[in-house]
Inverse folding.
């Protein structure tokens, strides 16, 4: 398997005008343990970002809460001035109180600080894709949406996306702005949000799965391994490739803190699954 092959096909237009390769990079893991503080090896984290771009990645997903702030700062340090065509998507709406702690705050006052901070850290005048990290159970969603609408009208945001939402929430948000992306947990063995994926597919909305391999599902691991062995690939590569095959609006953002693992992930695009492989993987029961 040639894991260093440049990814040049399989593209999607976010918002109809930002053309990205469907195998991108998620920059959550270039932080410390518990997605808190700086990474153990800061130089390796920067090498990962640079290597991702070398391998054809032109869509990087991050958030102000990763670190917090660490991921965005490293992206700027490693890649600024950004290569032409690089799309950086970031998110706001979560607070950080410690390792693995993610309180929600989508109040307009917090979103204002989060957005301004992201623009400054990334050295951007406009965020290509700004995503609401979570709907706040305390703050009416309309207030969050009104803030995003206003920020877009002011030119601080080009396109707007959502995360962990159902179809009703997407429809409500569409009363305020065009929803161009949805990030929900989804994998070959966790298809709870299949109906959201299909809605997004019909409406040409990018669907960005996070946690693309439900590692606790032993039965799925067995089937994935059987297919992986046939293709001299890893289980993770097959899981990623299945997602690319499953729907043309899926964008992948596998994350890692090592160049070696990054190159393995990028090798997922070079696998050619047969119809019988896909049928076998489609039969996996969710955990």
């Amino acid at each position: 398997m040639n894991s260093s092959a440049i990814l040049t096909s399989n593209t999607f237009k976010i918002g109809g005008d930002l053309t990205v390769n469907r195998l991108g990079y998620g920059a959550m893991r270039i932080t410390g343990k518990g997605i808190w503080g700086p990474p153990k090896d800061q130089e390796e984290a920067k090498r990962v970002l640079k290597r991702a771009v070398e391998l054809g990645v032109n869509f990087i997903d991050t958030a102000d809460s990763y670190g917090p702030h660490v991921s965005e700062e490293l992206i700027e340090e490693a890649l600024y001035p950004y290569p032409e065509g690089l799309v950086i998507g970031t998110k706001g709406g979560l607070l950080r109180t410690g390792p693995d702690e993610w309180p929600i705050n989508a109040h307009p006052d917090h979103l204002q600080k989060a957005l301004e901070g992201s623009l400054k850290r990334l050295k951007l005048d406009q965020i290509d894709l700004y995503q609401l990290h979570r709907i706040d159970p305390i703050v009416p969603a309309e207030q969050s949406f009104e803030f995003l609408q206003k920020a877009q009208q002011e030119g601080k945001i080009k396109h707007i996306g959502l995360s962990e939402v159902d179809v009703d929430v997407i429809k409500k948000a569409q009363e305020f702005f065009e929803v161009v992306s949805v990030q929900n947990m989804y994998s070959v063995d966790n298809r709870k949000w299949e109906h959201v994926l299909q809605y997004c597919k019909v409406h040409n909305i990018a669907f960005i799965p996070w946690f693309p391999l439900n590692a606790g599902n032993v039965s799925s691991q067995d089937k994935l391994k059987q297919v992986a062995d046939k293709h001299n690939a890893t289980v993770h590569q097959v899981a990623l490739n299945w997602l690319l095959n499953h729907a043309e609006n899926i964008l992948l953002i596998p994350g890692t803190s090592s160049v070696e693992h990054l190159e393995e992930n990028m090798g997922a695009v070079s696998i050619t699954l047969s119809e019988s492989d896909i049928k076998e993987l489609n039969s996996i029961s969710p955990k």
